[in-house]
Amino acid sequence: xxxxxxxxxxxxxxxxxxxxxxxxxxxxxxxxxxxxxxxxxxxxxxxxxxxxxxxxxxxxxxxxxxxxxxxxxxxxxxxxxxxxxxxxxxxxxxxxxxxxxxxxxxxxxxxxxxxxxxxxxxxxxxxxxxxxxxxxxxxxxxxxxxxxxxxxxxxxxxxxxxxxxxxxxxxxxxxxxxxxxxxx
Length: 184
Fold this sequence. Notes:
The protein has a domain at 1-76. It is 76% helix and 0% strand. It contains six helices and no strands. The longest helix has 50 residues, at 111-160.
């Protein structure tokens, strides 16, 4: 197995700073010097290899962002409830494209990578289901509240017009969708 990159072995805060510096197009020599000041020995060639991979990744991320933005422009306003499903489908397509690209580059997919990929797809599906369930629950709660408000308003109007309690109860049951004994 290949030795892990000296850049990837850096503590996370230092690696994050290296990523930031690369994104800002800081020279490799400046980054190597900056790391040396912090007691880290990294060769310029190792940093160059890391930069090539970093640039390729940022290019792919930029492309994915552009695809997402064009997707949103093409789809436009999506009816509520379908947004989550469309997002899941888009992310699944991206995951498949990444996996296919990895295979095309000659990379072998390990059982661990396949497991992580499957977990990511499963998590996306679960997120979509939770979002839909939450939307349905909120809609049901709002509908119940609105029916309660309407029933209360009818009761107040009925009592001010001199109808009996039985008549008011009948109207309230009709508004709330409750079966009434006289309701054939």
